[in-house]
Design goal:
It is built from five helices and four strands, in the order αααβαββαβ. The protein is an alpha+beta fold and 149 residues long. It has two domains: 41 residues, Winged helix-like DNA-binding domain superfamily/Winged helix DNA-binding domain (Arc Repressor Mutant, subunit A, Orthogonal Bundle), CATH 1.10.10; 72 residues, Alpha-Beta Plaits (2-Layer Sandwich). Strand 2 and strand 3 form a beta hairpin. Keywords: DNA-binding, Transcription, Transcription regulation.
Length: 149
């Protein structure tokens, strides 16, 4: 699908404020409200826009500890382990990475004791995990939500 400058501007405006009305979008990009609606519908249909969502500040919602994990997994167990971990409510995101069957995982928990419990009960008990490395975020300078055009 070809994304023109108007589509890029619409996506950027929606990224900044997902609740912006078609009328306001139309005013900002210089096309009709109906044309805005059609373009957004087309972007959704083509899978460029996957969904609209709310971004929650995890710290203010009680998840004070944010940690990243590099999880090395047995190659034959990779998919099963990834699915199991992805279903855990503390796992914010999980990706398969290049390298020796590695998963990169972002975890959000309430406090250090919850992180310890997650590691001991949720990670060490998973069959197929060979090695785990973790890093706790001390300070966030930038966080990306979605792709910026």
């Amino acid at each position: 699908m070809r994304i023109d400058e108007i589509d890029k501007k619409l996506i950027q405006l929606l990224s900044d404020d997902g609740r912006i009305s078609y009328v306001h979008l139309a005013e900002k990009v210089g096309i009709s409200r109906v044309a805005v609606k059609d373009r957004i519908h087309n972007l959704i249909e083509k899978g460029v826009i996957e969904k609209f969502s709310v971004i929650v500040n995890s710290e203010k919602a009680g998840k004070k500890i944010s940690a990243f994990f590099e999880v090395e997994v047995e190659p034959m167990q990779l998919e099963q382990v990834a699915i199991k971990l992805a279903n855990n409510p503390n796992v914010a995101s999980i990706y398969q990475m290049t390298g020796p069957s590695t998963l990169h995982m972002h975890v959000l928990v309430e406090d250090i004791s919850m992180l310890e419990s997650f590691i001991n009960k949720e990670l060490y008990s998973v069959v197929g995990i060979n090695r785990i490395e973790s890093s706790i975020i001390l300070k966030r300078f930038k966080s990306r939500n979605g792709y910026k055009l």
